[in-house]
Amino acid sequence: MSVSENAMADTSSDLDETPSIECFQNYTAPEVFIQGIAGIVNQEDVESMIIAQKEMLQRFEKTNEMLTNCNSLSMSHLKTTSQEIKKHTQILTELRKDLDSTFKRISTMKTKIMSQYPDLQKSISEAKKKELEQKPVESSSSGSASTASPYNSDTN
């Protein structure tokens, strides 16, 4: 064989080993790339990944459903609790108003009595002094009772 024949034989053998370009002419470049990768990837691995993804999807759906139920329960409890808190707040406000009114009435009554009976005030203050002298000085075990409050009768 001549050199040109050897060269022709080499090129024809190279063309036989590689797929001809004509078979890929009907496909786009991304399709050719995907077909090439598909030949490399193990189908069993792909199937096991799909199964694992489906199982995880089911778990996430269940979790999502549980969280939705939890949120709806929390919303209903929040609604009832907020209504109860509003009622209790209203009751406490009314009680505070009642206590303020009672304190003012008692204070008014005290001032009227003291203005009508000044000697009564002197006897009350003397009785308090005697009572304090008879009782030993106690340590402040009830700290909140000694604080100044309009509801503490000892301050007036």
Report on the architecture of this protein.
The protein is built from four helices and no strands. With 156 residues, it is mainly alpha-helical. Helix 3 packs across helix 4. The longest helix is centred in the middle third of the chain and has 74 residues. The chain is rod-shaped, with a radius of gyration of 48 Å.
Mean pLDDT: 79
What is the CA-based Rg, rounded?
48 Å
- What's the total helix number? 4
| Largest beta-sheet characterization | none
Query: What proportion of the residues is helical, as a percent range?
Result: over 70%
Shape: rod-shaped
Pfam families: KxDL
Protein name: KxDL motif-containing protein
Family: Belongs to the KXD1 family.
InterPro entries: KXD1-like, KxDL_dom
Concise overview:
With 156 residues, this protein is mostly helical. The chain has four helices and no strands.
Jot down its keywords.
rod-shaped, mainly alpha, about 160 residues, disordered N terminus, about 0% strand
SSE blueprint:
Elements (H helix, E strand, L loop, with lengths): L2 H15 L11 H12 L2 H74 L1 H17 L22
Helix pairs in contact: 3-4
